[in-house]
């Protein structure tokens, strides 16, 4: 135990092994849905759902363990939502690209990622983002995941007339979300340790007792075979030979680059990892965990991975070291054998956790100087852009394109570093590519 404490510097971080375990478990349950959502999304691209389930579990465990052991951060990595939909619906179905070729595109993008990480390009970009823009990113992610929680829990639904609307309170499962939310809020206000995790457990129990959550039909099952997807990316690299597929690779690169960058910045702000210079220590190692996971995932047969915003749930219950990620990674490995039990943790169980974490992350708004419009305008675009575009990278793009313009208008152009100018140009290209 002492060696674990020493390696992860648990005492110095003000945490305990027990707290890190609870944090790792909370993060796992908050993002376990990806084990079921990813096979559904990629299944639309005619990929074998069972193989994708196993590939998702292994790639997530690999990236999260590397993040925990090597980068020593309580941040999990898994196939990203949004980019998996782009893979399935835009590339495979829309462009009629075989999924094997699309997976080869993910592999090529991941190799480029590793190269950029090796030369510290990604680290340079993250550290160049101004402090107040980082605070806006953290708050924006908070609103984004709260919106996801409200939608997944049935409290906010799509509406043809008003875009979104309050969900129906006659739906029993929506009341399960409300129960979990109220319990979590009360426990947090009472400062009960692991309040979010306890809220999830109590919500699951209520769901089982009332029949709103079906009891699992089994406890243990063997993991599905990887054979249908394993190695297909390597066999089809030669298919990346057109401008269209080059754009696909570029899009994978841009979306995952800034999704991960934004998430890392937001989580680092939430956990207090950002130093006095506004930099995130060991960010290069964190980015290596991300890019290597994406590489491994493409070979196994899953869409691009990225740092997961649900890690904020684990951070919120006290996770401060890489040991929390180690526990999360182990849980994903075990989940391949106990997949029937994961069905108990429904979206109504995880939704309250996401909403609560959104409340906690919104506190970053207090650190932004709203009286300086040259700062307030791009910060606001980032904060509001993430939930309204349903994309972390799009929200960041809106704000960082506006930033140099507003700073120039305020005659503060000398404060804009070269990297921020480059980012603004890249994001303009990014918008052009995605909207062609």
UniProtKB/TrEMBL annotation:
<keyword id="KW-1133">Transmembrane helix</keyword>
<protein>
    <submittedName>
        <fullName>NCS2 family permease</fullName>
    </submittedName>
</protein>
<feature type="transmembrane region" description="Helical">
    <location>
        <begin position="133"/>
        <end position="151"/>
    </location>
</feature>
<feature type="transmembrane region" description="Helical">
    <location>
        <begin position="101"/>
        <end position="121"/>
    </location>
</feature>
<feature type="transmembrane region" description="Helical">
    <location>
        <begin position="351"/>
        <end position="370"/>
    </location>
</feature>
<dbReference type="InterPro" id="IPR045018">
    <property type="entry name" value="Azg-like"/>
</dbReference>
<dbReference type="GO" id="GO:0005345">
    <property type="term" value="F:purine nucleobase transmembrane transporter activity"/>
</dbReference>
<dbReference type="InterPro" id="IPR006043">
    <property type="entry name" value="NCS2"/>
</dbReference>
<feature type="transmembrane region" description="Helical">
    <location>
        <begin position="77"/>
        <end position="95"/>
    </location>
</feature>
<comment type="similarity">
    <text>Belongs to the nucleobase:cation symporter-2 (NCS2) (TC 2.A.40) family. Azg-like subfamily.</text>
</comment>
<dbReference type="InterPro" id="IPR026033">
    <property type="entry name" value="Azg-like_bact_archaea"/>
</dbReference>
<keyword id="KW-1003">Cell membrane</keyword>
<feature type="transmembrane region" description="Helical">
    <location>
        <begin position="196"/>
        <end position="223"/>
    </location>
</feature>
<feature type="transmembrane region" description="Helical">
    <location>
        <begin position="415"/>
        <end position="434"/>
    </location>
</feature>
<dbReference type="Pfam" id="PF00860">
    <property type="entry name" value="Xan_ur_permease"/>
</dbReference>
<dbReference type="GO" id="GO:0005886">
    <property type="term" value="C:plasma membrane"/>
</dbReference>
<feature type="transmembrane region" description="Helical">
    <location>
        <begin position="376"/>
        <end position="403"/>
    </location>
</feature>
<feature type="transmembrane region" description="Helical">
    <location>
        <begin position="163"/>
        <end position="189"/>
    </location>
</feature>
<keyword id="KW-0472">Membrane</keyword>
<feature type="transmembrane region" description="Helical">
    <location>
        <begin position="21"/>
        <end position="37"/>
    </location>
</feature>
<feature type="transmembrane region" description="Helical">
    <location>
        <begin position="49"/>
        <end position="70"/>
    </location>
</feature>
<feature type="transmembrane region" description="Helical">
    <location>
        <begin position="243"/>
        <end position="267"/>
    </location>
</feature>
<keyword id="KW-0813">Transport</keyword>
<feature type="transmembrane region" description="Helical">
    <location>
        <begin position="321"/>
        <end position="344"/>
    </location>
</feature>
<keyword id="KW-0812">Transmembrane</keyword>
